[in-house]
Design brief:
The structure is a homodimer of 161-residue chains. Chain A is built from 2 helices and 9 strands. By secondary structure, chain A is of the alpha+beta class. In chain A, the strands form 2 sheets. In chain A, strands 2-3-8-7-4-9 form a 6-stranded antiparallel beta barrel. The first copy, chain A, has a two-stranded antiparallel ribbon with strand order 5-6. Chains A and B meet through strand 1, strand 4, strand 6, strand 7 and strand 9 of A and strand 1, strand 4, strand 6, strand 7 and strand 9 of B.
Amino acid sequence: MSRKITYTPIGIIRSPFVKPQGTPIQPAYAAGVSGTVEVFEKYRAGLKDLDGFSHIVLLYHFHRSRGFNLRVIPFMDTRPRGLFATRAPKRPNPIGLSVVRLDGIENRILHVRNVDILDGTPLLDIKPYVPEFDGDADVRTGWLEKARKSVRRRKADTRFG
Amino acid sequence: MSRKITYTPIGIIRSPFVKPQGTPIQPAYAAGVSGTVEVFEKYRAGLKDLDGFSHIVLLYHFHRSRGFNLRVIPFMDTRPRGLFATRAPKRPNPIGLSVVRLDGIENRILHVRNVDILDGTPLLDIKPYVPEFDGDADVRTGWLEKARKSVRRRKADTRFG
């Protein structure tokens, strides 16, 4: 189980944050900050239908992260905590996860808001944000909307019927 | 930007799902299904404080996934969609993301519920689920609770003050 897993960036994230020091810790603290996600040409066809979603999940590589400690004092705390109970970027596998608002897509450029990500960060994956999967918020879910409602009905039927 | 990124599993996910065919597509459809996450001994110290969270984010490698198409017909639909507008496991970088309920931790074994993950899946990362970052739900957030309240107050002050 120590077999290595290799990924290749599918794009690059652009933001106003060029130094780790000034970068917000989480999207909630980067409210309104705009950025772009440049998806490489070869993956462009995969962006179809994404514009129906108000929010998307970005997975990326913390490229400035080096090493890790299993105990860290988080930004919002004064005591050392277990690394996996924090969102610290220095992790055994430094994968970042941000839910951002999608303002629009032009060609292969995504315009996003609430970006807490360093400029130049390699993008690994984009997923649609779906409240039933990832939590709940003021979101739209594009083509999934209808299927979600039918799932909700089915669940309600099971629970109350 | 086509530089390769290498990760190493930090654990392994155990579930009742041994074949891709029977595995639910998302945790919402795996409601109540129990599984375990075995974190390797060398990372155990990083689990401290995680038990304060009701939900956690699991990032893992879709180890049974081979290749990908940029257009796919999703489980919940009948029309081809852009891959990145779906949660299909066959992706350029096949990273899976699930928000699961954490029932408890014994030593380095996490007992989780709502597991939509194949048995034997390599674990890449664990993050605490935090509604302000990842959405909203019926969650607890352990040691972060106090800091979150203060953040909410500060945001309310800015908005209404």
